[in-house]
Amino acid sequence: MTAVSAPREMAGPKQGWFARHHIGVHTALIVLMVIWAIPTIGLFINSFRPATDAFGSGWWSALFPPYNFNFENYAHVLGQSGIGTSFLNSLFISIPATVIPLFVAAFAAYAFSWMEFPGRNILFVVVVGLLVVPLQATLIPVLSMFASWGIAGTFLAVWLAHTAYGLPFAIYLLRNFMGSLPREVFESAAIDGASAVTSFFRLALPMSVPAIAALAIFQFLFVWNDLLVALIYISLVNPDNLPLPVVIANLVSSQGAGIEFLGAAAFLSMALPLIVFFSLQRFFVRGIVGGSVKG
Amino acid sequence: MTDKLITAAIVVVGVPAVLIGYIWLTEQVIRILPEKQKPRVRPWLWMAPALAFLALFLVYPMFGTFLRSFQNHPGTEFVGLDNFFWFFGSADALSALKNNVLWLIFLTLFVVGFGLLVAVLVDKVRYESFAKSVIFVPLAISMVAAGVIWLYMYQYRPPGAVQTGTLNAAIDIFGLGPVPWLQVQTFSVNTFMLIIVMAWMWTGFAMVIISAALKGINPELMEAARVDGATEWQVFRGIVFPLLVPTLVVVSTTMIITALKAFDVVFTMTSGNLNTNVIANQMYAEMFKFGQYGRASAIAVVLLLAIIPIMFFNIGRFRAQEAVR
Amino acid sequence: MAKRFRWFTPLMVGALVMAACTTTPTGGDGKTVTVIGTWTDAEQAAFLAMVAPWETETGNTVKYQGTRSINDILAAGVPTGVLPDLAGLPGPGQMAEYAAAGALQPLDDVLDVATYTSETSPALVDLGKVDGKTYGVFIKAALKGLIYYNPTLHDYSASAPATWDELISQGEANQGDAEALWCVGIESGDASGWPATDWIENILLRQSGPDVYNDWWAGKVPWTDPAIKAAFDLYADVIDNTYGGGTNAVATAFQTGGDALFDNPPGCALFQQANFMSGQGKFATLTAGTDFNAFPFPALNPDYANAVEGAGDLFGMFHATDAAKSLMKYLVTAEAQDIWVKAGGALSANKNATSYPDDFSKNAGAAVANAEQFVFDASDLMPSAMNAAFWSHMVSLTSGSETVDEALAALQVVAEDAYAE
Fold first, then answer.
1. What residues contact B54, with CB distance under 8 A and at least 6 apart?
2. Per-residue pLDDT for B188 more than 50?
3. Which tens digit of pLDDT belongs to each residue from C405-415?
4. pLDDT tens-digit profile of C1-41?
5. How far is Cα C119 from Cα C135, in angstroms, rounded to an integer?
6. CB of A251 within 8 Å of any CB in chain C?
7. Domain for residue C292, yes or no?
8. Range of the domain at B196
9. If you measure CA to CA, which chain A residue comes closest to C78?
10. Cβ-Cβ contacts under 8 Å, A155 against chain C
11. What is the per-residue pLDDT for C72?
């Protein structure tokens, strides 16, 4: 190649052929983004329209005069009794329910990846197989269990339940990630006299940060949006502890009126998970693992 | 209110402290043990909290479900495989199973395929975070809201009336008649429409994970190949893709299991009518609507059996992965 | 790093567990009554207004939780014993199940049964009983089978058609430039098809009478019986003459099913629905009497001209605490139900609660209270598996993917299994 040394060091795209390819990348991405965004945009626009408009005409017709936008739907949602409390309840439920499974799964994943013991693979496959257990099949036995422990309706019950439900996937993902870390790093640490604990906290965890960040995003999101678990384990005993999704679902009356509020509610509720997503993006940077995945 | 805040503060500090403290505790315990026991005991202590959670909340109920599947409706006597015969004999079951196969194949292909595509493309542009969040937003929207969104997308009005659904309005521009998307059963169009909804939501999931794995690939490997004259496609096929395979297996396995359990979309949008039913929806109906715990349990056991082939595949992969390490 | 946790950890464990448990449930001690119901949003406000005087008078508090998934919650609560004090029950069928499971408390000692019986329609009183004991009471009612119309197209208030044949001839004569005679909308999430079942029920009731109707939902009349088929055939005729055909009926949510009445030109001239339709879709923005009105479902067989189909919201008690009993007694009184009735959109089960805000509701309320032959919504009374199949096959039938005979045959297969227990 007639490549000049300077462009190579900059690690920038090569000129000519690659530049053409770059247009292809941009086009493809923009097309994909538009396709993905259109459904949501439809809801977003409709959330500013009164019900009769939203159902009477397509959302795109709101982009032409006469404009009939208002904040009524949002005002109605924000004016719901108990929405502030349920928002705090959601936070109160989601944060521990994200942190606990992360740690518990990390310990187990590390054991599965880097400790030898008989039956390791079989046990791991069983753990992953638990992914298929339908949530509904666990509701009644677990509620019974909570009732006999006296914690039905408390936040602790929901933390424990969400932790358990999130573990199979968390362990699966983390083990995959930790297992692909280079053996040499751990070996040399062991030679230097590092204990398992040190290896875990100083090596395995920092190198698994992208996977942990991904898990944090998903677990937080699933718990934040969860309706069924909170409904069954809390409703019967202590309505004061109910989280946001329950209040949102109740915007629709028993006869189905009020669907127009769901759009506004969805966007209000979505704000926090998106903030979490954005703030964890910085962990998805190349170089944190930096060459740890072997070629 | 204030007591909730205090509790919150304690929780934020306490939870990590407890968890870290647990590991510290186990190490103290291990220190006491004789040298030979240490590596034998340690893994189990590290896995103990996870195993405890899983045993109590997943294994124990599943075991109960397994037993229930052999019992009759009120749960008073054993009826052997009756519930299973009922399931495979009912007309709905075959239709639902066929739909589940469609879900399995197409949801996974769609989600993993597009997730991979986006993760790779987005890696090359500067507006990476923004692009990723656009694909991610559908996952952040609750199922309730997604139902409303696609209600607007698929809405149908009689021919001649102004179309209010996005899809029907779009094809109207080309003069094509409005289609009642969720009713068309030929070629299972309505099932595909439901699969599209779920795929739209979950592509972001695959994208985030694949992107994380992608970042872990040594950039020098790729640069070296490019310098040697490899095209982007060759770099992808020769270096990136092979390194991503373990992650793709994880994502695919998860999506296959998610497809088998797919329930929310079908429940909210068509309730399983007009040949869109899936077995998870049937299980929910039997359990919560009809109170038929025996039959519902049988369906759950069928689900469990369905993933055994996938688990075998995974075991094979772990063995292969470890042989290389 | 390790030494720091020696005292920290046990302290944190203790604090954490204590903190999490501080929000321990009270679940109905002497002063609080926990209630779960299906009413949310505006209906919830109405219910809370209804119990407010009781709270002031007794000094107790009502902790109400509204949810649309009452079935799920109670299905989990009854086997585990984790239950509120009072609950809105999904229907008489489920009420019987919960009573059989020993979860529901009998109300004969709680209420003044004689007064309750005299103030409520006999059909409703009977439906709340299992083995002669009262387990559920109706505190709200609904009237089904009203025919809505747009007075600006043609005003039927002076002379409403009394028979089905008159309805068709007058309807078609006064159709104007409406595209079809009927509007039908049966989509309703996971309950899609229920408005169509209302059609069948109203037709069957007036074609074959309350006895056949009651035997039918009890499983004593097969679906393939000629009487049932006749009802289905008439429904098929209606669908043939409906706006946008069966396809549109299946695709349209019931809330907006009647909106085409008010289009320009109208999509249809007539729309069959329950009284609570007046608070849905476009109806909610219009005034009853002037912008829309309704007349009762016409007679098909003169013997059954005065038969009426209705439904209601059933209430039951799980924990017989003093406060719960007191609240239950209050809820069946006319004063209590009047509060909700005044707020609009509901009919009372108590005949003496008549403070309706407009003539439309007043007439509907009178129809329920004074009905000579009153039957309850049949699909609500069927076993849930039968009910679900009924809804589902109405959707297939309406969309044209099944014929009447195919649907009836399939329903009979389900019936054999569902009623077997």
1. A127, A130, A164, A167, A168
2. yes
3. 999 999 999 99
4. 444 445 555 655 565 565 555 544 444 445 889 999 988 87
5. 17
6. yes
7. yes
8. 89-324
9. A140
10. 20, 23
11. 86
Chain A touched by B295 (CB under 8 Å): no
| A204 min Cα distance to partner chain B (Å) | 14
Contact at 8 Å (CB) between B247 and A176? yes
Which of 83-102 (B) contact A at CB < 8 A?
none
Distances (CA, A) of B31 to B37, B42, C257: 10, 10, 73
Q: What is the mean pLDDT of residues A91-105?
A: 92
Indicate the pLDDT class of residue C281, thresholds 50, 70 and 90.
confident
Asked if residue B54 and residue B153 are part of one domain, the reply reads no
Residue-level pLDDT at C25: 44
Please tell me whether residue C323 adopts helix, strand or coil conformation.
Answer: helix
Tens digits of per-residue pLDDT, A197-219? 888 888 888 888 888 999 999 99
Indicate yes or no: CB of C251 within 8 angstroms of CB of B24. Answer: no
Task: Check if CATH label 1.10.3720.10 holds for domain A80-283.
Answer: yes
Burial degree of B319 (CB within 10 A; 0-12, 13-18, 19+):
exposed
- How many beta-carbon pairs below 8 A join chains A and B? 321
Please give the full DSSP string across C240-285, using - where no structure is assigned: HTBTTHHHHHHHSBGGGTTGGGGSSS-S-SEEEE-GGGGGSGGGGG
A282 burial class (0-12, 13-18, 19+ CB within 10 angstroms)? exposed
- Which residues of A are less than 8 Å from B148 in CB distance? 43, 259, 262-263, 266
| DSSP calls for C124-135 | HHHHTEETTEE-
* Whole-number average pLDDT of chain A: 83
Question: Which of C20, C40, C66 shows the shortest C-beta gap to A155?
Answer: C20
Chains meeting B at 3+ CB pairs closer than 8 A? A, C
Are residues B20 and B102 located together in one domain of the fold? no
DSSP H or E segment with residue C372: none
Q: For chain B, give the mean pLDDT.
A: 88
Please give the pLDDT value at position C144.
94
Whether the CB of C409 is below 8 Å from some CB of chain B: the reply is no
- CB-based contact (8 Å) between C309 and chain B? no
pLDDT score for A294: 42
Averaged pLDDT, C287-304? 92
> What's the total number of domains in chain B?
2
The answer to whether residues A259 and A50 touch, using CB atoms and an 8 Å cutoff, is no
Residues of chain C with C-beta less than 8 angstroms from the C-beta of B155: 251
d(CA A75, CA A80): 9
- As given in the structure block, the two tokens for residue B122 are 């987005």
Q: What's the DSSP call for residue C275?
A: G
Residue B6 has pLDDT above 90, yes or no: no
Residue A17 has pLDDT above 50, yes or no: no
The span from the first CA to the last CA of chain B, in angstroms, equals 53
Residue of B nearest to A17 (CA): B231
Would you say residue C329 lies in a domain? yes
CB-based contact B57 A138, cutoff 8 Å: yes
Split at pLDDT 50, 70, 90, the class of B73 is confident
Q: Which domain holds residue C115?
A: 32-143+310-376
B-C contacts at Cβ under 8 angstroms: 108
Residue carrying structure tokens 């052997």: B80
Omega of the bond leading into A182 within 30 degrees of 0 (cis): no
Look at residue B320 in the predicted model and tell me its pLDDT.
Answer: 78
Q: Count how many domains chain C has.
A: 2
3 state DSSP class of A64: coil
Q: Would residue C152 count as lying in a domain?
A: yes
Q: What is the pLDDT of residues A232-261, one digit of tens each?
A: 998 888 888 899 998 888 888 777 777 788
pLDDT band, very low/low/confident/very high, at B39 (cuts 50, 70, 90)? confident
pLDDT of amino acid B325: 63
Whether B4 is in a domain gets the answer no
Partners of residue B183 on adjacent β-strands: none
Place of tokens 């015969």: B85
The closest alpha carbon to C391, from C146, C230, C198, belongs to C198
